[in-house]
Amino acid sequence: MNHKKMKTRAKINLTLDVLGKRKDNYHEVEMIMQSIDLFDEMEFISKKKGITIYCQHCEVPIDESNIVYRAAKLLKDEYKIDKGIDIFIHKNIPVAAGLAGGSSNGAGTLQALNELWQLDLPLTKLMELGKRVGADIPFCLLGGTALAQGIGEKLQSLPPLPSNWLVLVKPPISISTAWVYKNLKINRHTQHPDTARAIQGIKEQNIDKAIPYFYNILEDVTIPAYPEIKAIKKRLEELGAKGVLMSGSGPTVFGFCRDEKEAQSICRTLKKEYNEVFIAKTYDEEVEA
Ligand code: ATP
Question: Residues in domain GHMP kinase N-terminal (predicted)?
Answer without folding.
Answer: 66-144
